[in-house]
Amino acid sequence: MIDVHAHVFPRITREEARILTGAGEPWLRDGMMMSGEDDYRPVTPELWDAGARVAAMDRTGVDVQAVSSTPLLFGYAADPARAAEWCDLVNDRVLAHCAQAPERLLPLCQVPLQDAALAARTVTEAKAAGHRGVHIGNHVGLRNLDDPDIVAFLAHCAEQDMPVLVHPWDMLGADRMRGHMMPWLVGMAAETHLGILSLMLSGAFERLPSSLRLCFCHGGGSFAYLLGRADNAWHQRDIVREHSPRPPSAYTDRFFVDSAVFDPRALRLLVEVMGAERVMLGTDFPFPLGEQDPGAVVRACPELDDEGRAAVLGGNAAAFLRLAG
To answer: Which PANTHER family match (predicted)?
Structure first.
């Protein structure tokens, strides 16, 4: 099994986090993710300790993880120069974490996405250092993935043959989603759906090279369930299809999604919409909202035969990550 959606928060001190003064200052203290002086979330050693991580993988039968930073670490609110310095620090720590089990843990870099030129340079340098892909948020401030600079960055990733994992963050509607983890339960799905549709309806997928390997977390959010609504709007309203020569359903072969939907019925719809060849195992390890029994939902999905299950559990990710053999 190859898990494409697994997070790390490497050991970063309060002093090191001051690179992002005024922009979140994330650091780790005694099992607590910190944001400046504020407690953000309690976490377990699997998030920062490679030995604990691999032991958990052994217990649950996961062979390989693509390891990406916790989104709190993105640093998109900082000025670009400080953000680039911060990304270098985080990327070095992620490399060191994964180097403790290099056959099991594959590092994904993060980038200062607020500056496309710096982000592209970071990807090039990170690939040379040993990173196997790129992890980005689905927006930077008010700029969605169809922003021309972000599209240019994605094209650079394609040129570098670096796959891109897109994770929702900084969720919309925060003022109305108070309590009960509503930003995670509602906002994340909406953010991911927005990211996918922005690439479709803006015509960005028409401009991006087909070689781009792009994966959206959490099963693509609400995209699969609402694809019929988007297609209907494209056919009925010229303002929807103004920049997109094809309906949204024509672009499902341009990206992947992970399997983190937690219900075999939901995964069945996702496979029907995307095709089994476009879905990869993702668990959101090691957070409590992640899949606690990796692969269980995939194995229980009635839409998948043995070949399809093998593809979702590992074969698709092996191709996505360019793993030998």
So the answer is: 2-AMINO-3-CARBOXYLMUCONATE-6-SEMIALDEHYDE DECARBOXYLASE, 2-AMINO-3-CARBOXYMUCONATE-6-SEMIALDEHYDE DECARBOXYLASE
